[in-house]
Amino acid sequence: MTEATQKPKTTKAKPRAKKATASVKATAKTTAAKAAAKIDAKNPLETASGIIVGLARTNFEESVETARAVMKSGSLKTAVELQNEYVRSALKRNIDAARELNELTVSTVREAVSPYATKFTEAFEKLRAA
To answer: Is the full-model pTM beyond 0.90?
Structure first.
């Protein structure tokens, strides 16, 4: 009996030709738009993990792009400006993701607790009436 062996899949990295300053802003906008479109179709845990994974991916990609741009920049002033722009966009993106996760958590807890809150209120009203 002969066993079939599978060949390992190989993928080639696609070269990117982007300008660092414009791509930092464009990547954040497109990633946020993709994440917002996917939120409605999943359960809260999948949505939260999608937000976190998307945020980590975007932060990593933009940090690499910024590092490349800093290395190619000709002056210290330009390098500092690029880093400042990256820090501002990353901070805003992280705060937005934290806000999304907070809203998701609050709505999920409300949905999970609402049946119990209703029964507790009914029981309390019966106790009060007695």
So the answer is: no
Kind plus residue range of the DSSP H or E element containing 90:
helix 76-129
DSSP string, 14-62: PP----HHHHHHHHHHHHHHHHHHHHTTS-HHHHHHHHHHHHHHHHHHH
- The span from the CA of 7 to the CA of 129, in Å, is 74
How far is residue 36's CA from residue 79's CA, in Å, rounded to a whole number? 32
With contact defined as beta carbons under 8 Å apart, do 27 and 61 qualify? Answer: yes
- Sorted by sequence, the CB contacts under 8 Å of residue 32 that are 6+ apart come out as 93, 96
| pLDDT tens by residue, 11-68 | 444 444 344 444 445 555 555 555 554 545 479 999 999 999 999 999 999 999 999 9
